[in-house]
Amino acid sequence: MDRLSLVLVIIGALNWLLVGLFQFDLVASLFGGRDALLSRIIYTIVGIAGAYCISFLFRERETKAKV
Fold first, then answer.
1. Residue 47 belongs to some domain of the structure
2. Domain count, the chain
3. What is the 3-state secondary structure of the chain?
4. What is the Cα–Cα distance from 13 to 11, expressed in whole angstroms?
5. What is the pLDDT of residues 31-64, one digit of tens each?
6. Model's pTM, two decimal places?
7. Integer distance in angstroms from the first to the last C-alpha of the chain?
């Protein structure tokens, strides 16, 4: 679940990079426009993944024992 959420957040971040640099929304262009149902579903899933990734900030780091 953690990796899937992180991948979705990275995809969302790259999409925002394209919007910021080139005013090009890849999700909207692939799925029928910014207001299309499928685009809104993708935005929602990426947003939920981002909210889930907030929990990464509050987790204890796992330390691996040196052998």
1. yes
2. 1
3. CHHHHHHHHHHHHHHHHHHHHHCCCHHHHHHCCCCCHHHHHHHHHHHHHHHHHHHHHHCCCCCCCCC
4. 5
5. 999 999 999 999 999 999 999 999 999 988 776 6
6. 0.81
7. 29
